[in-house]
Amino acid sequence: MAMVAHGVKRYANLKHLEYVRSLPCILCGNDYGVEAHHLLKPWRGSRGMSLKAGDDNVVPLCHTHHKKLHETGSEYKFFLNETGDENHGQFRARLLWLHSPYYKRKTR
What we know:
- This protein is α+β, with helices and mostly antiparallel strands and 108 residues long.
- The protein has helices at residues 14-21, 63-72, 75-83, 88-98, and strands at 2-5, 8-11, 35-38, 58-61.
- Helices cover 35% and strands 15% of the residues.
């Protein structure tokens, strides 16, 4: 399903979001109160004014890490500080999407 804002389609998949929220935080392993963080810098697609990343561009973060990420202001800086890899969020979101039970593979 695609959501449209300003003529741009955004991928939406509520079942995948529920799946991501059921996983532990990718940084500390906490499995309580996990939130699906939509990447500010998506691995696929784009985002813009009033348009968040698609639901295939999400990672599970506990409330503490989710809040800290937004307080940091830079997603790249946040993941660099937490993991040593500024692209950690994109890498993990892509892996989660490709291994999600709700990922739809294209067939010919």
